[in-house]
Write a structure and sequence with these properties.
Layout (H helix, E strand, L loop, with lengths): L1 E9 L9 H17 L3 E6 L9 H6 L2 H10 L3 E2 L3 H4 L4 H5 L8 E3 L3 E3 L8 E2 L1 E5 L5 E8 L3 H4 L4 E3 L2 H15 L2 E7 L2 H10 L5 E4 L10 E3 L2 E4 L7 E10 L4 E11 L7 H17 L3 E5 L12 H14 L3 E5 L10 E4 H7 L6 E7 H12 L1 H4 L16 E4 L2 E6 L5 E8 L2 E2 L5 E7 L9 H4 L4 E3 L5 H11 L5
Helix pairs in contact: 1-3, 1-9, 3-9, 10-15
């Protein structure tokens, strides 16, 4: 006799609640249908469901996301870096206190005295017929951030070695919930023969029909829940083994909206607005924001960053502020709308020669006009770089490009060999946007503050004096 086991999953929603009524309706409907057919069925999330880019996630510090997941009928969840490193230790410690599902993450550890009550390294689930499934979760090891928040992420491969053999002895099937990314998932499948299924995320890859590596089926459903996924495993009771593994995805954008979920979101929006309505400052005139020009507000914000981090130099790109700040009462909600990014202040040490290269690179059109997606940036384009602590003198070439002529620090030219403490957005420590910053050996991140917290401080304490 053969039996089918069904797993429905989401990954990397990033609080994209515009699509959530379709997603929740699909998950609830699929689960009801399978259970009505007496099939074993579970609903799973692979992390980054929470993203403080959305006012609901910001106001409730992720707990409204958990409430929405409860309503959608989730059974198993692992955490992503957006749950892990974008809120203070205590907020994550209590994020899932009211979850109706189990949270599985084997490589997350608290550096304080107590682990969260909700945290499980592995979970055992089983079908009514007795098929035993071992589930393990893993999240990406961004320890430069986690450890500043009193968490530690142990190495994924070492963690698997500690758990897989025990799971193999006690279960029939092993499923990995992986917020590690496609490359890590493929390498895990090559190294660990006993893992049957990897449901992945983090790198926003879309595997429409899955990918077989070694003995493992790997799947993931892209980003922002434009798709949700289904995994179907076929177990042969006579052979006592899996005989088939299938993975597909379903387009959420074409599905009807679940009205109960829509109403819940409307209620949460109303409550979030109330929580974020506290006035930060009252303005007689609006504050101009221009992505390609020097503005007073970006200058003040960059100076705040320099002071906050005790740096020699600070630099921020104008595209961080998405819109002008209107006159009248400026609330936390308005600041969140204008600076929604989950971006932290960061400080690196660069030589004068390296800093000069960074500044020259930030002057190019390839940089200022870049439509960046990711690395915490939630805006349109990077925009002009603004500086504090240095004076940058440039010249325009005939082709319209800008070139650094001279950089002064305390009225003296930069010393090519001297080390300078440079504060900026943590965005530039990733990828290859500004290689000298990304490649800096010593990176110091400031958590849990976001740049919008510095913007709030700037408006509250400095703007009326400017």
């Amino acid at each position: 006799m053969q039996e089918k086991l069904y797993f429905y999953y989401t990954n990397d929603l990033h609080s994209n609640f515009e699509i959530w009524p379709q997603v929740a309706g699909y998950l609830k409907g699929a689960k009801e249908e399978r259970l009505a057919e007496n099939h074993a069925c579970w609903v799973i999330d692979i992390g980054d469901h929470v993203d403080r880019v959305h006012p609901i996630a910001e106001a409730f510090m992720g707990k409204a996301n958990v409430e929405l997941m409860n309503h959608a009928g989730y059974d198993l969840v692992t955490i992503g870096n957006n749950e892990g490193i974008t809120m203070a230790h205590d907020d994550l410690h209590h994020l899932y206190d009211n979850a109706d599902f189990e949270v599985v993450c084997a490589n997350l550890h608290s550096l304080t005295s107590a682990e969260p009550n909700w945290l499980h390294s592995t979970v055992h689930i089983q079908s009514d017929s007795g098929i035993k499934i071992g589930v393990i979760g893993l999240t990406a090891p961004f320890n430069a951030f986690y450890e500043l928040l009193d968490w530690h992420i142990s190495a994924p491969f070492q963690t698997l070695e500690e758990h897989i053999s025990r799971l193999k002895e006690s279960t029939d099937i092993i499923l990995l919930m992986s917020h590690l990314g496609i490359n890590e998932d493929q390498e895990i499948a090559r190294r660990f023969d006993d893992i049957d299924v990897i449901i992945g995320g983090h790198t926003h890859h879309l595997l429409r029909t899955g990918e077989i590596v070694n003995n493992t089926i790997i799947t993931a459903a892209g980003k922002h829940c434009g798709f949700a996924g289904e995994v179907v495993l076929t177990w042969d009771h006579d052979q006592k083994q899996l005989v088939d593994k299938e993975a597909t995805v379903q387009d959420m954008t074409v599905l009807p909206r679940d009205l109960a979920t829509e109403q819940a979101l409307n209620d949460l929006t109303y409550k979030a607005d109330a929580l974020l309505e506290q006035t930060v400052i009252e303005l007689k005139e609006p504050i101009d924001v221009k992505w390609f020009q020097h503005t007073a507000i970006m200058q003040k914000l960059t100076e705040t960053l320099k002071e906050w981090t005790n740096a020699d130099v600070a630099m921020l790109n104008g595209g961080l502020l998405l819109d002008q700040i209107p006159s009248g009462e400026v609330t936390h909600k308005a600041i969140h709308r204008i600076c929604p990014h989950p971006i932290n202040p960061c400080m690196v040490e660069l030589t004068g020669a390296e800093l000069t290269e960074v500044i020259q690179g930030s002057l190019t059109r390839d940089f200022t006009e870049l439509k960046l997606k990711g690395f915490g940036f939630r805006g349109e384009i990077l925009g002009k770089m603004i500086y504090a602590g240095i004076d940058v003198e440039t010249v325009l070439r005939e082709d319209g490009s800008e070139y650094v002529e001279r950089i002064l620090h305390h009225d003296e030219p930069l010393d090519p060999e001297l080390l300078y403490k440079v504060a900026t957005a943590d965005t530039f420590t990733f990828g290859r946007l500004l290689p000298e910053i990304a490649g800096a050996e010593d990176k110091h991140y400031f958590l849990p503050e976001f740049l919008r917290d510095l913007l709030t401080d700037t408006l509250r304490h400095k703007w009326n004096d400017h």
